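Reminder to self: tokens first, then the designed residues, so the page reads top to bottom the way the pipeline ran.
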């Protein structure tokens, strides 16, 4: 009997303890509840309370009718603020943004910070879709007003995605995902804007998810990706000076996919890392085999995504691939874009210096489309600039493009760099490009990207290809050889 009594007392005590914890967790002013539901930096609600609030809003809307709007807001270029001014300033900026968001919305609206520079907003009880657009415009204006932090004035913008119940989904997950997808659409549309989630966006999202899974499989299985090689020639010397490796994907149902269809996807996920490793190994092995089979040694150029430069071991990985393929580093070239060298400039600068230290050459791809400064260019360990084909294409029709080509050639000359014109398609383009001082070219006029088994044959028979380029090129070649 007494044992039963003791057990009963214990059970009651346990129940009381659970109840106390539950009450403490629920009270927003208690420390425990506060940490569980509020973001310490801004005082806004956090992801878990946001989820509760949205779920409750959806229950109410199902019962009473009306719209529920979810906005996903991401600060444009926030990373740059952190990198340039430090985290203290970044934190203060986030606090000020949070206060402004709260200030420009109604009391019944909800603002949350999901983490980093990502905020979400819930608007309840609206009747018209356009109203959400008006609120988004107001938010963009408020967030875009200059900030004063210490003695600095900062200007920052945001990108917003909007998803609505019942149009775009009826669950927390669907609406948040929809708003997030639409936010990326705003970024792609040039930032500082808002976009509504639409059915076509949803279809595209699920297509992308499937393609991403397919790509993961393609990389793991190692059977669907392959490389083609496009020769780069010096038309004055009449020689092939290198080949560029370009990835192709033989998709089991969609057929041949070009890099534009999947590289951005690979870059968004981290799939670009294993994919690039596979491609680098493949390119190094191919070049090793060609040289072993008697081809005149030359460089193979591999495109490197910006994402790879965030890996502290990039140089070691490249050195590893070279060693595994038993290829001399001077037969490898890495192509980086201007975007890569301007993003995290110092880190990239160090990586390029180390690459050049092990004997790998680096060229800047699509040159002229980015924002490199001449001072920065001078500090980089690079050996060539590749003129973007958009300028080559317009070298006849647009005075500015011709001026740009001329300027790039002259920059290359003063920095003692090679210069290569990409995408040369016609003899007229070639003639003009040559007249402007560039003799190294790549493009359909010389050769389309080739299957690996055709590379040796091309290099051997390049003299015949020269006949196709016209007498001028042939004569120069004959004179110089
Ligand atoms: P890119 O590095 O600037 O490569 C040159 C692109 O121009 C290639 O397209 C090539 O086929 C194309 N091209 C060459 N000559 C001509 C021409 O005369 N006219 C025209 N209209 N186009 C020409 P592709 O193979 O579709 O590659 C597109 C881009 O995808 C590449 O631009 C590069 O940025 C990226 N990419 C390709 N392979 C890889 C890779 O293995 N890794 C990474 N990270 N990116 C890659
Ligand atoms: Mg390239
Ligand atoms: Mg290019």
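Designed residues (481 positions):
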């Amino acid at each position: 009997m007494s044992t039963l009594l003791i057990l009963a007392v214990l059970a009651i005590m346990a129940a009381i303890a659970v109840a106390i914890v539950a009450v403490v967790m629920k009270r927003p002013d208690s420390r425990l509840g506060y940490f569980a539901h509020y973001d310490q930096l801004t005082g806004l609600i956090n992801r878990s309370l946001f989820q509760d609030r949205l779920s409750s809003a959806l229950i109410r809307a199902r019962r009473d009718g009306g719209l529920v709007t979810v906005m996903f807001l991401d600060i444009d270029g926030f990373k740059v603020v952190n990198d340039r001014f430090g985290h203290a300033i970044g934190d203060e900026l986030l606090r000020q943004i949070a206060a402004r968001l709260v200030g420009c919305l109604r009391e019944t609206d909800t603002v949350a910070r999901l983490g980093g520079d990502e905020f979400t907003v819930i608007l309840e009880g609206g009747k018209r879709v356009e109203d959400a657009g008006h609120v988004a415009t107001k938010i963009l204006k408020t967030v875009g007003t200059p900030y004063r932090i210490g003695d600095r004035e900062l200007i920052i913008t945001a990108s917003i995605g909007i998803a609505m119940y019942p149009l775009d989904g009826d669950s927390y997950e669907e609406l948040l995902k929809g708003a997030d997808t639409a936010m990326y659409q705003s970024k792609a549309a040039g930032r500082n804007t808002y976009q509504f989630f639409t059915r076509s966006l949803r279809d595209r999202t699920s297509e992308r998810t499937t393609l991403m899974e397919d790509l993961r499989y393609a990389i793991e299985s190692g059977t669907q990706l392959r490389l083609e090689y496009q020769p780069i020639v010096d038309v004055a010397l009449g020689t092939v000076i290198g080949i560029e490796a370009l990835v192709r994907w033989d998709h089991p149902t969609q057929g041949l996919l070009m890099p534009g269809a999947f590289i951005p996807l690979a870059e968004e996920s981290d799939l670009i890392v294993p994919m690039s490793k596979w491609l680098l190994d493949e390119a190094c092995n191919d070049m090793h085999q060609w040289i072993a089979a008697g081809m005149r040694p030359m460089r193979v150029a591999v495109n490197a995504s910006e994402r790879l430069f965030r890996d502290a071991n990039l140089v070691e990985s490249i050195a590893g691939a070279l060693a595994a393929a038993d290829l001399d580093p001077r037969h490898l070239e890495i192509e980086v874009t201007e975007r890569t060298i301007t993003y995290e400039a110092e880190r990239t600068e160090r990586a390029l210096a180390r690459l050049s230290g092990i004997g790998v050459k680096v060229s800047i791809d699509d040159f002229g489309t980015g924002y490199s400064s001449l001072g920065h260019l001078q500090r980089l360990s690079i050996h060539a600039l590749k003129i973007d084909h958009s300028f080559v294409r317009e070298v006849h029709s647009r005075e500015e493009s011709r001026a740009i080509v001329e300027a790039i050639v002259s920059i290359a000359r003063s920095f003692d760099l090679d210069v290569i014109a990409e995408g040369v398609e016609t003899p007229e383009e070639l003639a003009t490009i040559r007249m402007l001082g560039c003799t190294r070219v790549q493009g359909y006029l010389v050769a389309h990207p080739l299957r690996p088994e055709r590379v040796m044959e091309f290099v051997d028979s390049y003299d015949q290809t020269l006949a196709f380029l016209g007498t001028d090129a042939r004569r120069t070649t004959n004179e110089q050889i």
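The chain has two domains: 47-197, 207-478.
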